Here is the input.
Amino acid sequence: MPSLSTLRLGSQGPYVKKLKLSLNGLSKNYNNFSIDYSFDQKTEDAVKNYQDDIKLFRDGIVGPATWASLIARVKMIQVKLNSLGDNSGTPDGWFGLKTTNAVKKFQSEHGLVQEGIVNPRTRAKLFNPHPRDNFESRSSSIALSSLDPYVGFLAGRFLRLCSANHLDVRITTAFRSWDESDRLYALGRTVPGSIVSNARGGDSYHNWGLAFDAGPFENNKISTDPTKFNLMGRLGEQVGLEWGGTFKSIIDLPHFQYTFGLTTEDLLNGKRPPR
Here is the structure.
């Protein structure tokens, strides 16, 4: 890969536009940045979210590691599209017009919305077209049995530990349907409301049974006491769960997850937790 300029807030030029096209094409344009030549605050935020997603250092600077990751991910999509007869041109790692049109053609052939970006449902169809599970069609549930068995085991330990610490903690969401995630993603974007999620259907660990939401209750209602949420979070971390209260982009106090080191992109590509 040729040496590429490091980009950061305030950068200008054609490689900024290439960066934005690739982030957009990989379905990482959460905040609706403009596809132009200016590296603005929205671009920096999108880069930070991307770095979080793929476990890179979150600095909002597009240096060698971030460039290499972006180019490799786009190239993987281009190679896959070409292998299926949806011509995206030479796999060069840039999400340009040919790649966009190839994605639209693939989406048209598979009854998907023709956005021209590799959204989660498109990625799943591209890389795992015949899944042996049915995550995409499952209904939402608060039952621990709807979670991955090990995650359900950790959730049970967490609830018992909360009880031992005199917290009445209850599960409010376990498995979340892909359709429900799409509805949450739309809030503040295409429907009125505040933005509460950066995850479309398939791009949340809830959609794979690897996450759940919980809350401390008082008098049969969720408490508004932040100290109870903080204690709940610390207890979740004690049993090995990752707590949403430590997230950087959207802090999510009720959220707990155990990911087995997998990204949601890994899951969409067909990888699964060990059994």
